[in-house]
Amino acid sequence: MSSTRRVVKSPGRALAWPLLLAVPAAVMLAACSKQDPAQGAGQAPPPPEVGVITAAVQNVPVVTELPGRTEASRIAQVRARAAGILVERRFTEGSDVKAGQVLFRIDAAPYEASQASARAQLARAEATLAQARAQAQRYEPLVKANAISQQDYIDAVATAKAAEADVAAAQAALQTAGINLGYATVTAPISGRIGRALVTEGALVGQGEVTQLATVQQIDPMYVNFTQPVADVMRLRQAIAGGKFKGAGGTVPVRVLLDDGSVYPVAGKLLFSDLTVDETTGQITLRAELPNPKGTLLPGMYVRVRLEQAQASDAILVPQQAVTRSNQGDTVLVVAPDGKFAPRQVKIASGRDGQWVVLDGLAAGDKVITDGFQKLRGATTVRPVPWSPGGAASQPAGAAASAPAAAPASAPAASAPAKA
């Protein structure tokens, strides 16, 4: 007896294969819909925008910035030239004093006594001189009448001359006593600002050595001493001799930057440059003079000196951010008319106001990349746009404007699978 098997087909298995085939198709469709339409069409992305400046030839002053220290134009040490007890101080520490102003007084009693004694010695010498002259005059007619010997007359004349010498010596002693008495009153040797008193009333000064009492410094005008490497000086002279620079004629202007970065409002002038090179540092010393009517500058301050030593003819100013400096040299990126960019080595003379003075490597009309360096990775060409320090925000604004333009294009593509 044979049995008959009945095969029953499951409805779930019958629908499994069509579903498995439909899922990959939907995934592929969604992937295709998310692709950028520009990439799907085979188009390359547009070249990035970069900020550029157009090189322009001009005459630029060559300004060198060097470290320096301020120094009083005149310094006088007030010392006690008379020995004795200091009895009075007649100035305010840190104030301005005038030449000849009384600063200290030393006990003058011993010097007054010495002056009185010298005056008495002079009076005695003058009396002796008067007697000697009278005797010589009385002997003159007697010797002619042979009433006295010739030797007596000669002795009388010699005595009168010796008395004259004694009077001269007494006068000198009296003058010396007056000078010593004057030293008991200590005056300011120059006009300027006086510092603190180094001794107080009651101190014994001038014994054994000349005691310093105070210091007066004249700070208007003020000196600024600074140094410059001799190699820089030689290069500057060679550039002037080669015609690249024009030497600064007449008065060389000097500007000073204070420690806080501010510029001292009054310009100064260069006084001299030393002819001797320091053997240990290889630098030469220069000195400038600046007016200081308000006493803003104080002796010993650290400053930066901006010195205009020459004029660079046919120079080009480039923002410092456009230059890459390394041991191999200084380079900039220059954009060609076809949009391609390439590095170019340049020669820099000095810097001023956030810019480098370029002497060689650039020509008028060259477009130098100044902003947008982060966009150059992987790019072969760029689209240059004018750049200025105040308009640096124009490039980010262009980049921000391109982002919303791409957003509407991507939104419909993302919604395509939903419609399918």
Automatic annotation (TrEMBL):
What range(s) does the Multidrug resistance protein MdtA-like barrel-sandwich hybrid domain occupy? 74-217
- The protein's name: Efflux transporter periplasmic adaptor subunit
Q: What is its subcellular localisation?
A: Cell envelope
Q: Which residues form the Multidrug resistance protein MdtA-like beta-barrel domain?
A: 221-309
Presence of keyword Amino-acid biosynthesis: no
Family the UniProt entry places it in: Belongs to the membrane fusion protein (MFP) (TC 8.A.1) family.
Q: Mind telling me which InterPro entries this protein's record contains?
A: MdtA-like_b-barrel, MdtA-like_BSH, MdtA-like_C, MdtA-like_HH, RND_pump_MFP
The family database entries (SUPFAM superfamilies) matched by this protein are listed as: HlyD-like secretion proteins
